[in-house]
Amino acid sequence: MTVRHRARAVVPLLALSVLAAGCSQEPGQDATDLVADAQARDYRDGQAEAQRVRQANRALPSPSAGVVEIDGINGALTSEEVAAFSRSGTSTQVQVASRGEDAAFASLCAGEIDVVDSTRAIAPAELEACRSVGLDVVQLQVASDAVVVAIKNETDVGGDCLSTQQVREVYRAGSPVTSWAQLGGGYDDVPLAVAGPNRENNAFQFFGRTVLDAPDPSLINLRSDYRTFDTDQGSRLFVVGRERDEDLALKLRDRARERDLAKSRVEEQRQVVDDARAEVEVAVAEVEKGVRDQRPADQQAADRERVVRAEQALARAQAELSVLTREKDAVVTRYDAAADARARVQRTRGHVGYFLFSYYELFEDQLRPFEVTDPDGERNCIFPSQRTITSGEYPLSRRLLLTTTTRSMERSEVADFLLHYLDRASEAAVDAQLVALSQAEIERQKDWVSGREAPDLVTADETPATEEPAAPTRPAEPAR
């Protein structure tokens, strides 16, 4: 139930509670009077709370003129955008701290800073702290980021949707998963091998925090057989194999025929050599027999000529066998290369890696991403796309946020800085290999900052479920 809905529900709830307690009402006092009294008390309490909030708001520290205070994580875009704003010729000083999101939101709600740089939204308790001192919270999004878990395109391991818990189970330190079938859900019994970037890569840090719940990710958070690569290309080739292997594997059938034909020719030529060698032996025997038998001279000459011809034929046959053997060896080598390539291609079927979404987009013809669902609630299997990542629907995504207050946005120096940031956000996101927002969304947020349109305030509905106090109502008119 939203705050507005709860506010409208106050009167009937009060009436029911009063009627239920009707036996304790004073003599001569009906239920309508009790409701009116309760509403009057509620209104007085609301007025007192409003007065307390106004006093707390007036007690907030005054901001320094010409200074914009930012705190949080000092994310992927902020340092460069602060530097670019300073280079624009502005006299405004932008002071950036990086004490973390928790401390930054506390400072925002204490009126000490203007902007929180974060990858998470304000929490319910933090939002209530801001509201308790009269600060309305506005959240701006400047980019998004996501990791994609992918196998080779046009391959299949028996499923295309993983829960975040399954992704964690595949990669975590000590994981026993060596076959896709161990994940359940109908996955095939295919050997599973994992890879990804080293810790210098932004994807490594993001994946470690988002999937493995590691505040400062390192290799000890990953399984011992995790293959690390210095480049995204290395991870991609581990998953999809090399194009040359694909080409060679496609030639395997033709090369098998070439190999069999070459082997057949060698075997046939070996028979020719054996026959030629046998003829030499017969011819030599005839010469010897002619000598023993004292054949005529011309007959013995003919016998010797036969030996010469037989030896020449044997030499030619042996030379041809050598040529055919070399050709066969070359063909067998080419066949073996194609067979090895096919084996490597087949092994990639179970290989899986993770990549920043911006890198996946460049090679989406080679990579097949898994849909991802949260382990709790409905199995919704969200496909990674510009839309689902920007909206935050895709579970392995994060939004780069600037959270401020209407109080800070009314300051010209803060508004100027935020407008400058938003103007450059799309181009900066692309340069940083992040997911850029649509121009329409950028313009909408600029309208908030410039005052051309009332901003969407962060409400309890945009944070995890929490109970909110009901809004005060005016007392009913007394019964006449």
Automatic annotation (TrEMBL):
Residues 460-480 have a biased composition (Low complexity). Residues 447-480 are annotated as: Disordered. It comes from the Bacteria. Residues 1-20 form the signal peptide. Residues 259-334 form a coiled coil. Residues 83-400 form the PBP domain. Keywords: Coiled coil, Signal. InterPro entries: PBP_domain, Phosphate_ABC_transporter. Pfam families: PBP_like_2. PANTHER family: PERIPLASMIC PHOSPHATE BINDING COMPONENT OF PHOSPHATE ABC TRANSPORTER, PHOSPHATE-BINDING PROTEIN PSTS. This is ABC-type phosphate transport system substrate-binding protein.
